[in-house]
């Protein structure tokens, strides 16, 4: 069969097209393209079916598991695919490793080395027990993340654009330095012993449950990454769609209860916002894929669900569609985070 | 359903107006009794904290579309005030007797009584033009007074105590102090714009 490969501007990428077997899979097509265009290795290629001009729909991306024949309409053994270069790609494992390595190495620098003299704080630094435990907690967290990256996670898309390395590393490394600077500061004032224990204790419990959630997610996918979208079930996934994000957020809440820095809380809010976005997208994807009715909530399942239903019926009667709770998913409200700040001595 | 929502809003706004009126009277009577500016927090502090915390409901109202205010602006305003009140004044006992607390509470109480009365009267039907006039005029004096010799002066005075409690919070309050004038100016000009549109046409329809 003949496959014509065009770019999005209509130019033929491969002169004369490609000749493939009838039984060829999309993977074979990708490799054929790579053979003809040396720099476009398979993970850089995004292949879609051509859209009707003026069509507002999203282009259909070719699934690498299917055979090319599946995408030919009816009779012809001719197919045109639209090619997009995704740019240099990096595997998720590599990406995660570098973004997590930063916090793991940077934080101890602020703890162990006399950095603060360069910020104008001369003299001996008194280290409080909570600062030491915070170091262990933080480093354990990022060590756990690196271990999970190599031994637990199964990635559906193997790669990510190279530019994400700079963006993600900037995010993690900057926040890591920001938090490390304040927690290990010479003028840092610790909270009560009890509060520290509650904070780290709760955080550790959440880290363990987070690990268990990752194991559950891993078991949804087969070793070669063939899983696609499945509804996670069991344990906390019966209550929330993305229990792994829930436990991750609460784990940071625990850290902040124990350490009480503005830096930590800012990171918590930003991280929670990012993860909430991901969770809503995943929730939407899962609802599209299945008719299963799920609801996502991270704090007060019954209370917020009822409130949301009541308000949804009110807004429908009013004829308006405002407010972010009008979607079928619920947002998280960080009462817990705010109150923990005010509770500190 | 619409009636129920209106009734709820009427109740909420009336209770807030009442609460702020009570705190205003407490502060004034304590001032008249002692002739000093130090008793504001002692007389009305807990009540003000309660009222301000409960006013988070206004953010929720905006979020669920009960009122057309949106979420972000009410959230920012609530956040700024609540941080000032709970994280600084309530937390740091040493600043509670300063006259800047008195100034802030007076400015807040008067503006909130006017604002909530205005909303409550709207829920009941229409608002007498004198209240509307007050709502969109009193801010001209109350707002700068509440922000500069009130909130900003208090935050500045609280800095040495904050530094001792939490070094990260200390730097944070510094950043807040630097940003306050710009944020405040934006809101102040926005209120002037609203004033022109609400008070400009006396016979036009008044919308909340």
TrEMBL record, chain B:
Keywords: Endoplasmic reticulum, Fatty acid biosynthesis, Fatty acid metabolism, Lipid biosynthesis, Lipid metabolism, Lyase, Membrane, Transmembrane, Transmembrane helix. It is an enzyme of class 4 (lyase). It is found in: Endoplasmic reticulum membrane; Membrane. InterPro entries: Tyr_Pase-like_PTPLA. The chain crosses the membrane at residues 133-156, 168-189. Catalyzes the third of the four reactions of the long-chain fatty acids elongation cycle. This endoplasmic reticulum-bound enzymatic process, allows the addition of two carbons to the chain of long- and very long-chain fatty acids/VLCFAs per cycle. This enzyme catalyzes the dehydration of the 3-hydroxyacyl-CoA intermediate into trans-2,3-enoyl-CoA, within each cycle of fatty acid elongation. Thereby, it participates to the production of VLCFAs of different chain lengths that are involved in multiple biological processes as precursors of membrane lipids and lipid mediators. Belongs to the very long-chain fatty acids dehydratase HACD family. This is Very-long-chain (3R)-3-hydroxyacyl-CoA dehydratase.
């Amino acid at each position: 069969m003949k496959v014509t490969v065009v770019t999005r501007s209509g130019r033929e990428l491969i002169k004369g097209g490609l000749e493939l077997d009838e039984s060829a899979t999309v993977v074979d097509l990708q490799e054929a393209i790579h053979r003809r265009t040396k720099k476009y290795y398979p993970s850089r290629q995004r292949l879609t079916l051509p859209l009707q001009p003026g069509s507002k729909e999203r282009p259909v991306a070719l699934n690498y598991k299917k055979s090319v024949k599946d995408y030919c309409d009816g009779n012809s053994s001719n197919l045109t695919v639209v090619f997009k270069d995704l740019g240099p790609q990096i595997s998720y494992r590599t990406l995660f490793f570098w973004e997590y390595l930063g916090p793991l190495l940077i934080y101890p620098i602020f703890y162990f080395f006399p950095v603060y003299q360069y910020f104008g704080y001369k003299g001996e630094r008194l280290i409080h027990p909570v600062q030491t435990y915070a170091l262990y907690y933080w480093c354990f967290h990022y060590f756990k993340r690196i271990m999970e990256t190599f031994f637990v996670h199964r990635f559906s898309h193997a790669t990510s654009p190279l530019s994400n390395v700079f963006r993600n590393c900037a995010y993690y490394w900057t926040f890591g330095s920001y938090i490390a600077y304040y927690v290990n500061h010479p003028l840092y004032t610790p909270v009560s012993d009890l509060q520290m224990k509650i904070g780290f204790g709760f955080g550790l419990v959440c880290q363990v449950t987070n690990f268990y959630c990752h194991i559950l997610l891993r078991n949804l996918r087969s070793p070669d990454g063939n899983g696609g979208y499945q509804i996670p079930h069991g344990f906390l996934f019966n209550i929330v769609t993305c229990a792994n994000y829930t436990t991750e957020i609460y784990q940071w809440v625990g850290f902040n209860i124990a350490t009480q820095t503005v830096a930590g809380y800012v990171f918590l809010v930003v991280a929670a916002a990012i993860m909430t976005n991901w969770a809503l997208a995943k929730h939407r994807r899962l609802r599209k894929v299945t008719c299963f009715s799920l609801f996502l909530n991270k704090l007060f399942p019954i209370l917020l669900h009822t409130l949301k239903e009541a308000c949804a019926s009110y807004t429908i009667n009013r004829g308006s569609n405002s407010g972010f709770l009008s979607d079928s998913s619920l947002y998280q409200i960080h009462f817990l985070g705010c109150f923990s700040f005010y509770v500190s001595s | 359903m619409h009636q129920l929502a209106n009734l709820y809003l009427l109740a909420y706004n009336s209770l807030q107006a009442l609460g702020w009126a009570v705190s205003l009277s407490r502060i004034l009577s304590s001032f008249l009794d002692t002739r000093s500016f130090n008793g504001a927090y002692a007389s009305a502090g807990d009540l003000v904290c309660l009222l301000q915390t409960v006013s988070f409901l206004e953010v929720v109202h905006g979020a669920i579309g009960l009122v057309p205010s949106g979420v972000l602006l009410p959230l920012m305003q609530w956040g700024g005030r609540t941080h000032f009140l709970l994280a600084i004044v309530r937390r740091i006992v040493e600043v509670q007797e300063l006259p800047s607390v008195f100034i802030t509470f007076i400015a807040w109480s008067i503006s909130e009584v006017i604002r909530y009365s205005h909303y409550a009267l709207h829920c009941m039907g229409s608002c007498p033009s004198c209240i509307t006039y007050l709502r969109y005029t009193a801010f001209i004096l109350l707002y700068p007074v509440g922000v500069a010799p009130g909130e900003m002066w208090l935050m500045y005075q609280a800095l040495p105590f904050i530094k001792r409690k939490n070094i990260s919070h200390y730097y944070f309050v510094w950043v807040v102090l630097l940003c306050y004038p710009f944020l405040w100016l934006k809101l102040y000009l926005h209120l002037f714009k609203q004033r022109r549109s609400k008070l400009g046409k006396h016979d036009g329809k008044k919308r909340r």
